[in-house]
Amino acid sequence: MTAATATAPAPAADTDVLSVRNVSAAYGPYRALFDVSFRVPEGGIVALVGSNGAGKSTVARTITGLVTASTGQVIFSGEDVTALPAYKIARLGMAHVVEGRGVFSTLTVEENLTLAFRQRAGRAKLKENLERAYTAFPILGERRRQSGGTLSGGQQRLLSLAKVLVVPSKVLVADELSLGLAPVVVDAVYEGLREINRNGTALVVVEQQVNRVLQLANWAVVLNHGSVAYQGDPAGASAAVETLMARREEAVASGAAEAEAESEASDT
Fold first, then answer.
1. One digit per residue, pLDDT tens: the chain, 268 residues?
2. 77 found inside a domain
3. Does 4 map to a domain?
């Protein structure tokens, strides 16, 4: 079996917090996912990688209820959530942190955190939870009076992570959090993800920085054109991605050669 050959997911277990079973999805007439299956054990970290347009973000949106699967099932904490709206899935313990979203721009950092902590943990531990957030991400403490909309992209992502770190969810779906960030900020984001996982939250991390996310994960899923091309040990995922990229380059080169040949033939 080659590195880029689709592999079957590990058998479902009682300890799985999330199970994606033969899920297909579409945007109107455009089919985006084809029979995607994988599982996330309690406390696990699954990396979801692939090139642009591979379907990674669509998988994330389908898991969290922003896109409804056309076929297949999404099982979360033993419950079929395939047809549930996003807010109901969130109430069951699913968090979704997306690049560029999740921050109220007109509220200060502290107001953003206060709103999230009161909703998830009540008023009693508000002060304690705020201090935990500022200890985990000191830059947020320094910016506590600053409006969310004036934070840098990296600081906004740390603010979104702080909400999950302090009041843990069962699963966090992190979608392209490192996109466009300086290396030092990426380090802070990944350390935040590690800490969230240490607190017991399972992670599904959608990422284009393949090597970085594979160092974090204990299971990897490689997508290609909306289908699973590989899943298994993260060590094998790099080879799978390289194989897919090589095939894509060969296809592009072959197409260019055919176009050149046709052009030459038409000139004769």
1. 344 444 666 555 668 999 999 999 999 999 999 999 999 999 999 999 998 889 999 999 999 999 999 999 999 999 999 999 999 999 999 999 986 567 899 999 999 999 999 888 788 889 999 999 999 999 999 999 999 999 998 999 999 999 888 888 999 999 988 888 889 989 999 999 999 999 999 999 999 889 999 999 999 999 999 999 999 999 999 889 888 878 777 777 666 555 555 555 555 5
2. yes
3. no
Alpha carbon distance 230, 220 (integer Å): 8
Domain containing 27 — which CATH number? 3.40.50.300
Number of domains in the chain: 1
The reply to whether 7 falls in a domain is no
Domain assignment of residue 228, yes or no: yes
pTM score, whole prediction: 0.84
Domain range for residue 155? 16-267
Nearest to 189 by CA among 198, 177, 202, 201: 177
